[in-house]
Amino acid sequence: MAIKRNTKVEPAFTMASMTDIVFLLLLFFLVTSTLINPNALRLLLPKSTNQISDKAQVSVSIKHYPQAGIFSYHINGNHNAVPFSDIEPQLQQQLQHSDDPTVSLYVDKTVPMEQVVQVMNIAKRNQYKVILATSPE
User: Fold this and answer.
1) pTM score > 0.70 for this model?
2) CA 98 – CA 101 distance, rounded (Å)
3) Is 36 a domain residue?
4) CA-based, 20 to 30 A from 84: which of 12, 30, 52, 63?
């Protein structure tokens, strides 16, 4: 005697759970990619094998525009350029309550050393530590 089933088994696969996982992964990667460095300037940094683990309180970026022959200075990755004469007062204001004031320099590869030394002189006058940022080799 054969027993018959009243319900049929359908061999179907639902993709609802798979789309949820893909959506969550997409959100995760979007959020983490914006946390890396949200307001950084695009600079071609020189390469180096040395890495420093010290954390700077303030960053100064020098961007070079070779076609126009000008340089723009940016503090803490801000897209608005700061005149060179305003760099020292702004650094003093931001580092006045710091126990170990440290400035990180992000400089384009094409910037002449003279421009870098001018910013380093500001740091020396105010007794700030200077870290020259490089990209890893």
Assistant:
1) no
2) 5
3) no
4) 52
